[in-house]
Amino acid sequence: MQVDSDSTIRKQLEYQLKNIELLNKYEKQITSKREAVKANFCKLITGRPYPNSHGYSTQKSSSYGIIEMNINDPYIDISYDFFREDYIDLINTLCVKVCRKDDKNGRDYIVMDTNYEPNRDKNDLLIRMVNDFPPGEYTLEAGFILKENRLDEYPVFYRQTFVLKK
Description:
The chain is an alpha+beta fold. The protein has one helix spanning 2-38; strands at residues 43-45, 57-60, 65-72, 75-82, 91-102, 107-117, 126-130, 137-146, 156-165. The protein is elongated and about 85 Å long.
């Protein structure tokens, strides 16, 4: 009887050691997934943030900072990194515009045109959206509009353009 008892205890210890080993192995992945969920994404603005606008003009955003797009299926993440911390105080909204290219007639169709409230935490300007566009070629423009232009008839959209193919 002593042998059966020792054998059972040994098996239980082996299982516990294996569980500890697996927990240590996946701890980094679990932590990174938790951090991704805790990210402080910019909030979507509903309504019309530019009541006088009849469109917009465009300029490159490169004199203000770097805008990057990363595809992390099933998401598209857009991050903003400004050259100076005080630039965030000049911004009225962060903007994302997506157009689908139509090869048949050479036109672009607006699929999405959204505005986001910038987080005033200068290290956390991140927009996340679901990457659920149908197959095709898209142009994604990510950028911002300054507070000084918010009441203009054609506010300036400072932007970076990306190509998204699905």
